[in-house]
């Protein structure tokens, strides 16, 4: 998966 | 969401609330660096560009709105509020914060995970957040005598960074799908190290129950 898509932190 | 991440977010939120409490009730921003506050507003503005395009969770969206709203209202208080702005230590708060912005932007253009506008802005915000506390630390060093709320504000910010590191380590082992963001880890580690000196004196002052005073 594209790790740049996971921005679940603030 | 793990307990370390939640605790990190809560200490971050509390730091902002402590600062707003000081400004709103005591009507004073003495000891607070406007330079650092400007950098934080820029950090949030650059990082949360996805706020209306990407939905993660209600928690995520609400927290982003709180951080954006609080950082810009702090700026408004310090620059525009007729009583609060008079307590600003303008002559002491002389850190050339603009010189932090450009290197961070250049670094984000050179070292990023993907060369797109949003991704570069996100990376820029990570780099800038790592050094945004510097004007505040320099101001504390200059004024030396630190009032309780200002001390608590910086302590809570440092605690937030420390808890985020524990959160990354936890996620690394606990979540099989978690990918390591090296940019975030290294910047976060650097950012936390910047607080080490302050933490040492803060904890000592709490332990000995004396007013926080930084060495000259």
Features:
heterodimer; A: 10 residues; little secondary structure; 0% strand; B: 216 residues; mainly alpha
Major sheet attributes of chain A: none
Q: What's the helix-strand series of chain B? A: HHHHHHHHH
DSSP summary: helix tally of chain B: 9
Given the structure, what is the number of helices of chain A?
0
Largest interface: A-B, 8 and 21 residues
Shape of chain A: rod-shaped
Radius of gyration of chain A over all CA atoms, rounded: 7 Å
Helix content of chain A: under 10%
Kindly give the count of domains of chain B: 1
Tell me the number of strands of chain A: 0
Biggest sheet character of chain B: none
Mean of the pLDDT scores of chain A? 70
Task: Point out poorly predicted stretches of chain B.
Answer: none
- The secondary structure category of chain B is mainly alpha
SS-based structural class of chain A? little secondary structure
Distance between the termini of chain A: 21 Å
- Count all strands of chain B and give the number: 0
Terminal Cα span of chain B: 42 Å
Strand content of chain B: under 5%
Low-confidence runs of chain A: none
Brief characterization of the structure:
The complex is a heterodimer of chains A (10) and B (216). By secondary structure, chain A is low in regular secondary structure.
Provide a descriptive summary of the structure in words.
The complex is a heterodimer of chains A (10) and B (216). With 10 residues, chain A is low in regular secondary structure. Chain A is rod-shaped. Chain A has no helix or strand. Chain B has nine helices and no strands. The longest helix of chain B is centred in the last third of the chain and has 27 residues, at 148-174. Chains A and B meet through loops of A and helix 1 and helix 3 of B.
